[in-house]
From TrEMBL:
<comment type="similarity">
    <text>Belongs to the short-chain dehydrogenases/reductases (SDR) family.</text>
</comment>
<dbReference type="Pfam" id="PF13561">
    <property type="entry name" value="adh_short_C2"/>
</dbReference>
<keyword id="KW-1133">Transmembrane helix</keyword>
<keyword id="KW-0812">Transmembrane</keyword>
<feature type="transmembrane region" description="Helical">
    <location>
        <begin position="97"/>
        <end position="116"/>
    </location>
</feature>
<dbReference type="InterPro" id="IPR002347">
    <property type="entry name" value="SDR_fam"/>
</dbReference>
<feature type="transmembrane region" description="Helical">
    <location>
        <begin position="27"/>
        <end position="50"/>
    </location>
</feature>
<protein>
    <submittedName>
        <fullName>Uncharacterized protein</fullName>
    </submittedName>
</protein>
<keyword id="KW-0560">Oxidoreductase</keyword>
<feature type="transmembrane region" description="Helical">
    <location>
        <begin position="57"/>
        <end position="77"/>
    </location>
</feature>
<keyword id="KW-0472">Membrane</keyword>
<dbReference type="InterPro" id="IPR036291">
    <property type="entry name" value="NAD(P)-bd_dom_sf"/>
</dbReference>
<feature type="region of interest" description="Disordered">
    <location>
        <begin position="121"/>
        <end position="148"/>
    </location>
</feature>
């Protein structure tokens, strides 16, 4: 604005110069004063770039006030006509002096505005205030970003040998009839569910939730002995929880079923490498042979490791993807094919993803695992759309940090990691494996008949922050 006003006066002086109606000394003086006024206006513009919003607002307010005053002064002096001898030059110089004077006043007012605006600023000695300037090239501080970065010194390799796994007990008191009222469509009575990775950890607990809800279960695992042991333990635990449970010869019944809330579940164990198509196909045939059908699938087979992305052994990364992603895909497509061949009126699957498929965990580095679980989550949505016409529902559960026996072992060896994890969970604690029993039963049962393609996060609010 100041430049526009100065330009207005300068045009009159230039007109006077062209007709020779000016004095050299006055012309030089007028040019110097005009340049000073122009520089002052430019200083306003440059400094205001680095000012806070409050100061800039006040600066513009003063600029408009002075523009109005300049206009009033112009009216007082009147239009500079070219008819006089040196009057035009005198008036032009006086006008330019007036413009420069107002710019000087404006400069003073700007500094006053800057001082007033500074009162609302944060303390410059505050490190968090200083950190905000780090993006401008100012050296940062140790705390900056430290809680939102990965730590490459954390290395955790998934155990290869069974002896390296801590014992995994079954959940007590979770099965059979009870006197609490609930919706009947949460029941899985008469259904058959397949749980991959069901010999331990989250898979074992979810297999038990299916049994507790009335289903027969096929436990699939790479470790055959542990799968058989877990299958037996689930049945024994059910009998303890239900002392009136009935045992009988299933071969006497045409459908190999006997209805009733005290019916002892049929829990079988199956060895399978979920990343191998041939192994998966053989296992599914074996399950159908022993159970007669498959209604539900829970893909819990999976594992994670912690290496920084650059150092991650490629062969281990392929194995991780083979189990987490390929295994989910192979079992899902195999079960979907079975359901379509049966013309089943309903079938449902739950892929076990992870909150890591939606966020980046810190401080432990695990890029391949995060990407794999993101793939599982989107695979569930994609299959849900593809198979909706066949009445097959596909959903995903994304657990947060769960205290499985293996997780407890890792955290017992790294107390600082445990502290960091829990500090990032709004609920202030890690989840229990049994916290997944309700969600998986809901998504498999008729209680969720209109739910497909969903991602249910069970993470204590971790991904909300």
């Amino acid at each position: 604005m100041a430049l526009v006003v100065i330009g207005y006066y300068a045009s009159d002086l230039n007109a006077a110069r062209k007709v020779g109606k000016y004095q050299d000394s006055k012309w030089v003086f007028a040019v110097v004063v005009g340049c000073m006024a122009a520089i002052t206006a430019l200083v306003f513009g440059i400094i205001s770039i680095f000012s806070q919003y409050r100061t800039i607002a006040m600066l513009f307010a003063w600029e408009w006030i002075l523009v109005i005053l300049w206009a009033a002064v112009t009216g007082i002096f009147g239009k500079m006509y070219l008819g006089g001898e040196n009057d035009e030059m005198d008036h032009g110089v006086e006008s330019m002096i007036t413009a420069a004077a107002f710019d000087c006043v404006n400069l003073v007012l700007w500094f006053i505005s800057a001082v007033i605006g500074t009162k609302g600023r944060r303390n410059k000695d505050d490190p968090f205030h200083q950190s905000s300037s780090a993006t401008l090239g100012v050296p940062g501080y140790d705390h900056e970003g430290s809680q939102s970065r990965t730590d490459n010194t954390i290395v955790v390799e998934y155990p290869e040998e069974t002896k390296d796994f801590p014992p995994e007990p079954t959940i007590q008191g979770r099965g059979g009839p009870h006197l609490k009222r609930t919706l009947p469509n949460f029941s899985l009575e008469g259904r058959v569910g397949v749980v991959t990775g069901g010999a331990r950890g989250l898979g074992l607990v979810m297999a038990q939730s299916l049994v507790a809800s009335g289903a027969d279960v096929a436990i699939v695992d790479l470790n055959k002995e542990e799968a058989e042991s877990s299958a037996k333990a689930i049945v024994e635990q059910f009998k303890k929880d239900n002392p009136n449970a009935q045992t009988y010869d299933r071969s006497k019944f045409a459908s190999s079923k006997k209805e009733g809330i005290f019916r002892v579940p049929n829990v079988t164990a199956h060895h399978c490498d979920v990343s191998d198509p041939t192994s998966v196909e053989t296992t599914l045939s074996d399950i159908v042979g022993k159970h007669g059908k498959i209604d539900h699938l829970v893909t819990s087979a999976g594992f994670t490791e912690n290496y920084d992305a650059i150092s991650y052994p490629y062969e281990r990364m392929k194995k991780l993807w083979g189990v987490n992603v390929d295994g989910t895909y192979l079992f899902a497509t195999g079960v979907a094919k079975h359901l379509m061949e049966r013309n089943a009126t309903s079938g449902s699957m739950v892929f076990i993803g992870s909150m890591s498929g939606s966020i980046v965990n810190v401080p432990q580095p695990q890029a391949p695992y995060n990407a794999a679980k993101a793939a599982v989550r989107h695979l569930a949505a994609s299959c849900a759309v593809e198979w909706a016409h066949a009445n097959i529902r596909v959903n995903c559960i994304s657990p947060g940090y769960m205290l499985t026996a293996l997780t407890r072992k890792i955290l017992d060896e790294n107390a600082e990691l445990n502290k960091t994890w829990t500090s990032l969970i709004p609920m202030g604690k890690m989840g229990r494996p049994e916290d997944l029993m309700g969600p998986v039963t809901f998504l498999l049962s008729d209680a969720s008949l209109y739910v497909t393609g969903a991602d249910l996060r069970v993470d204590g609010g971790y991904t909300c922050t």
